[in-house]
Amino acid sequence: MAIKLHGSFAVHPGAWLKTEMVEPFGLSVTSAAEKLGVTRQAMSHLLNARSGLSADMALRFEKAFGLEAETLLRMQASHDLAVARAGEKNIKVERLVAAGG
Questions:
Q1: Theoretical Cys-Cys bridge with 43: which of 23, 33, 39, 99, CB 3.0 to 4.6 Å?
Q2: Domain ranges, ordered by start, for the chain
């Protein structure tokens, strides 16, 4: 049996990066964007949880802060799944059974 975690455990990686990395380093959105070589808009959207974390951005945070990109991408996947699960009652699919089974 799989363990199901409550959706509140799935924090958006951008919000986490903002409070745990960017702000403690004394960086603004603009300065963080400059240091990581991305646009201010892209950084703002990520840190304010309006867009997801890409593999490219995860690597940039890895290089800048020493975080593992894989960990950040797992955070994003967990968040995405929690959001999908919150609306899963609206997902209608037909259960399939293997032929001859």
A1: 33
A2: 11-90
CB atoms near residue 84 (< 10 Å): 11
- Nearest partner of 58 among 43, 36, 73, judged by Cα: 73
User: Using one digit for the tens of pLDDT, what is the confidence trace for 39-98?
Assistant: 999 999 999 999 999 999 999 999 999 999 999 999 999 999 999 999 999 999 999 999
Question: How crowded is residue 53: how many other Cβ atoms within 10 Å of its Cβ?
Answer: 23
The reported pTM is 0.83
Tell me the CATH architecture of domain 11-90: Orthogonal Bundle (1.10)
Structure token digits, residue 6: 């409550």
Residue 21 · residue 65 · CB < 8 Å: yes
Token duo for residue 85: 């699960």
